[in-house]
Amino acid sequence: MDPTRDNLLIRFKAFIDGLGIFTLFAVLLLVVFGAAAAFGWLKKGAEPEEAAAKIRQNVKTGVVAEQAKFLSKDAIDSVTPNVAKLLTHSNPIAVEIPTQVVPGSETAKKLASEVPIDPAQMEIGKAQFLVCGACHGQNGEGTPAGPPLAGSEWVTGPISNLILIQLRGLKGPIEVAGKVYDFPAGMQPMAYQTDEQIAGALTYIRNSFGNKASAVKPEEVKALRSEVGQPQVTAQELIKP
Ligand code: HEC
């Protein structure tokens, strides 16, 4: 056995030495952390996060500024008319649902050529047309008393135009197949015929003299009867064929 173990003084000295070494380490640690704190090393871990936040902030500011430049009210205002122009000048989608087909369009003409015209209606129309033929020519070629119906875009165009012309008459300049006509007294209304007769006459002119278009139904004439008595219609009031 070690005899020093029982010596109180020696044991006390060992205790003091141990305490000294322990204190030395404590002081060393304090110095190291103190220096680290003084040079900012301890904050190092937080710094990249702050830098990244700053970069994000800069990017965001830049993006917002760029957006503001292109999405300013002026920019939007300058683009809107072009979009509107593009839309109004674009061709309608080719629909074949009868109620959605644009009158006078290629689809309307195609559909009209597919629906057979009732020969009985053409007979009624032919008889009624004798009166029209007095001014428009029995072959729709036109006379000094009326413009041609053969090759007239009005005749094969929207049906409501034709019904209005017949029920109210027509006055003022009207361009037919590239030529402007303006008869002083215009055309007088001819509303005395029945719905069937008017529908027949209009179906007849739409399907004679080389014209080809859909038939006119008596119900379509009936629907516009309230127009009778109104002043003569002008080309401006009609749907451009
Ligand atoms: C008394 C002469 C006269 C008679 C009858 C007459 N029209 Fe007209 N019609 C005219 C005149 C004139 C115009 C052009 C009016 C103008 O200058 O605005 C015209 C214009 C038209 C137009 C538009 C222009 C075109 O040539 O496509 C149509 C369609 C038309 N008439 C259909 C008829 C039909 C259908 C009848 C018979 C139910 C008829 N007209 C009977 C004199 C007549």
In short:
The protein has nine helices and two strands.
Description:
The protein is mainly alpha-helical. Helices cover 55% and strands 2% of the residues. The protein contains 9 helices and 2 strands; from the N terminus they run αααααααββαα. The chain has a two-stranded antiparallel sheet with strand order 1-2. Helix 5 crosses helix 8. The longest helix has 32 residues, at 8-39.
Total number of helices: 9
- Largest sheet, spatial ordering of strands: 1-2
**CATH class type of the largest domain:** Mainly Alpha
User: What are the low-pLDDT stretches, counting only 5+ consecutive residues below 50?
Assistant: none
CATH architecture heading of the largest domain: Orthogonal Bundle
Main sheet: strands, sense, barrel: 2 strands, antiparallel
- Integer tally of domains: 2
Amount of helix = 40-55%
Shape: rod-shaped
CATH-derived topology of the largest domain: Cytochrome Bc1 Complex, Chain D, domain 2
Bound molecules: heme C
Order of helices and strands: HHHHHHHEEHH
**Mind telling me the CATH superfamily name of the largest domain?**
Cytochrome c-like domain
Our estimate of the beta-strand percent is under 5%
Q: What does the average pLDDT come to? A: 88
Task: Kindly state the number of beta strands.
Answer: 2
Task: Return the structural class.
Answer: mainly alpha
| Rg, alpha carbons | 48 Å
